[in-house]
Design brief:
80 residues; 4 helices
């Protein structure tokens, strides 16, 4: 298994626990690497989805869970 940056769809599958195969891989991944990595765009998309369905409690829980994750900014260094 290699370390990876999760996209919005995969993170959504993990959060919503709808796909047993994705859950199993996520648990295995966490055992090996101890945290998930994704971009700030993914965070924004997940929060926007929760906002659209007025699921503010889950949005708060998601924001709290980010503490143990690696989040890449939109721009990681000065492009100029």
């Amino acid at each position: 298994m290699r370390q990876a940056i999760l996209d919005t769809d995969i993170l959504s599958f993990i959060i919503n626990r709808r796909h047993p195969a994705v859950q199993a891989m996520a648990q295995q991944y966490i055992r090996v690497f101890r945290y998930f990595s994704f971009s700030s765009i993914t965070v924004t998309e997940i929060l926007k989805g929760m906002q659209l369905v007025h699921d503010y409690e889950r949005a708060r829980e998601f924001l709290t869970s980010l503490e143990g994750c690696e989040i890449f900014p939109l721009i990681s260094r000065n492009p100029f």
